[in-house]
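Entry:
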Amino acid sequence: MSTIIYPSPIFGPVHSRRLGISLGINLLPADGKVCSFDCIYCECGFNADHRPTLPMPSREEVAEKLERQLQQMVAENKLPDVLTFAGNGEPTCHPHFAEIIDDTIRLRDKYCPNAKVCVLSNSTMIHRQQVHDALMRVDDNILKLDTVDPLYINKVDRPNGSYDVKHIIERMKAFNGHVIIQTMFMRGCCKGKSVDNTGEAFVEPWLKAVKEIGPQQVMVYTIDRETPAQGLEKASREQLDAIRDRVIAAGIPCTASY
């Protein structure tokens, strides 16, 4: 089983299915994974298989290495479309996440003002005021909501500690539309149990929650790389298109990535 552990604190640029040319910012250790979820589909593998020995990069190290990379990209006239906080786990877990966002916006404005600052988050830290306020300052605040079914969340996303999806939805509403919902749809089984969330029993209540949140956009996608759990299958193009069209019919822009 292959997994991807990203360099830290800067990696890429890489071509993202959803975001374009993306320069990655990884606030987690370079030799392992730190995440408040332990998703069975995570390209970085299971948490227990990748315990880090190195610390998280410091705020100063992130700023220094980001500036160095942006200077090089400017010299090569190859500017990124987006600066993306992603990598080996949950970026908002970093104790200086808010300050690093401020540094990143400053460097973006200096070197590549047309690029967006994007955060990919599993939403588990959005109850923290500093995290909420920092996400309000970025261009693309992309938050995960795979389902509203607690049993499915515990089986597939596998949060560490308490996770109340109703509370998460309320905190998403607090962004007042400055949020992009990202949802993984897939089929198949894991340990003999279905992980298919493409049926009406999952899609209808999820869509209801999306309408309540009122995001600026929704991104639906499916498995693209090898997963740590066996038996998972991609949602079909037809299934993703049908879900996308229902979101659009509700008046919310939506993209599907296959």
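The chain has a mean pLDDT of 96.
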